[in-house]
Design a protein that fits this description.
With about 300 residues, the protein is an alpha/beta fold. It folds into 2 domains: about 140 residues, 3-Layer(aba) Sandwich (Rossmann fold), CATH 3.40.50.620; about 110 residues, Riboflavin kinase-like (Elongation Factor Tu (Ef-tu), domain 3, Beta Barrel). The chain has 10 helices and 12 strands. A 6-stranded parallel sheet has the order 1-4-3-2-5-6. A 6-stranded antiparallel sheet has the order 8-7-12-9-10-11. α7 runs antiparallel to α8. The longest helix has 17 residues. The two termini are about 30 Å apart.
């Protein structure tokens, strides 16, 4: 997959395009991407960085990093992605100017979108305008109940299985391993300390079963209340893993919520509970997710 950051980097070609933030690249997004590929034109996506709502001053808990978003778009069969900087200049473009700069200039023949698609300054452009400008339009129906907002709500409740059903895959924690307290090693369960970008979504605090780097993972998300912690820590323990992960990117799938954080009567009681968490992680199953275009 080719990734560019300006329309000037792309020669005109017969393209079908989808335009949007594609945060999470969830099942609703995937139906649009499948429709783009079905046109038999060069499948292309125009996405924005930063997220438009963040650029406008709103707080948004993102479901994926830009790096992961691009990986998922490539997995979906998209051949070219134009990452457009969501600058004040772009925000001020009229719909006609946006269409000329980002669509006509790269050869777009067909645009696939939901019926409520809007673009241009103050969201003043719609599919009817694009049709009048000579583009073929494919309207793709939404999947009822599937949205980035609904996925964030499921995560806030700790319901990672519901989130997986909407994403079409398990929710992922995507970050870099940094130095931590190294307390897990003294307890017999060495954990990695995963640092996420500040604007990424994180599930409700608790203990989860998941998977990373080919190994099942028992994952603690929270403040370590047993030790009186106050900062959020994300600490996966990769079962049967030996190696040094410091400084590396690690993507952790979350399969199942096991329990809340807790304060224990003793360190021995904590270690006994961790052992039970590890056994529950060994028994956990990856969420079974529906086909992209099917109902949950």
């Amino acid at each position: 997959m080719r990734v560019v950051y300006s329309p000037a980097e792309l020669a005109p070609a017969a393209r079908a395009v989808a335009v949007g933030s594609f945060d999470g690249v969830h099942r609703g997004h995937r139906t649009v991407l499948e429709a783009v590929r079905a046109t038999r034109l060069e499948p292309t996506v125009i996405t924005f960085e930063p997220h438009p709502r963040i650029a406008l001053g709103n707080k948004v808990e993102l479901l994926t990093t830009l790096e992961r978003r691009l990986e998922l778009l490539g997995d979906a069969g998209i051949e070219t992605v134009l990452v457009a900087a969501f600058t004040p200049e772009l925000q001020r473009l009229t719909p006609e100017a946006f269409a000329e700069t980002f669509l006509h200039a790269i050869g777009v023949e067909c645009l696939v979108a939901g019926e409520d698609f809007r673009f241009g300054v103050r969201r003043s452009g719609d599919l009817g305008l694009l049709e009048s400008l000579g583009f073929d339009i494919v309207v793709q129906a939404e999947i009822e109940g599937v949205s980035s907002t609904a996925i964030r709500a499921a995560l806030a409740a700790g319901d990672v299985r519901a989130a997986a059903g909407m994403l079409g895959r398990p929710f992922e924690l995507d970050g870099t391993v940094v130095a931590g307290d190294q307390r897990g090693g003294t307890l017999g369960y060495p954990t990695a300390n995963l640092r996420l970008d500040a604007d990424l979504a994180c599930p409700r605090y608790g203990i989860y079963a998941g998977h990373a780097r080919g190994h099942r993972a028992a994952v603690s998300i929270g403040t370590n209340p047993h030790y009186g912690g106050s900062e959020r820590r994300i600490e996966p323990y990769l079962l049967d893993y030996e190696g040094d992960l410091y400084g590396q990117r690690v993507v952790v799938e979350l399969w199942e919520r096991l329990r809340d954080e807790a304060v224990f009567a003793s360190e021995e009681a904590l270690v006994e509970q961790i052992a039970r968490d590890v056994e529950a992680t060994r028994a956990a199953t990856r969420p079974q997710v529906p086909h992209v275009g099917s109902d949950p």
